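Good morning,

Attaching, inline, the C-alpha cells for the sequence recovery test we're adding to the shared suite. The designed sequence is right after.
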C-alpha cells in the first residue's frame, strides 16, 4: 500500500446490483478483487486501462468476469462502476456499443 491516507472504495448502486446477481464462485472472487483494489488500485494483478474513460481500469476475475473501476488519486477514492460477465459488463459505459 502506498504511504499516506488509505483509499476509499465506493461501489456504484448499478455495479452493486450487478454484483449481487453473480453466482457464488464469481461473487467470492469479486470480493477478493475488491480487497486488492482497495489496497492499491494501481497494482492489481491483470489490470489494464479502460481507454474509453479517464483514470479507469479493468480487472478480469473468475475467468470471464470483469470489474471496471475509476481512480481519483487526489482524493484517494476508488469507484467501482461495473461488475459482470464479460458479455454484459461494458453495456452502458462510455465507448461501448
Amino acid at each position: 500500500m502506498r504511504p499516506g491516507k488509505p483509499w476509499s472504495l465506493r461501489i456504484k448502486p448499478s455495479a452493486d446490483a450487478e454484483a449481487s446477481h453473480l453466482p457464488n464462485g464469481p461473487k467470492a472472487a469479486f470480493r477478493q478483487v475488491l480487497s486488492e483494489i482497495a489496497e492499491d488500485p494501481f497494482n492489481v494483478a491483470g489490470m489494464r486501462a479502460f481507454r474509453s474513460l479517464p483514470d479507469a481500469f479493468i480487472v478480469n476475475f473468475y475467468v470471464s468476469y470483469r470489474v471496471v473501476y475509476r481512480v481519483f488519486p487526489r482524493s484517494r477514492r476508488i469507484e467501482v462502476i461495473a461488475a459482470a460477465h464479460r458479455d454484459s459488463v461494458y453495456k452502458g459505459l462510455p465507448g461501448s456499443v
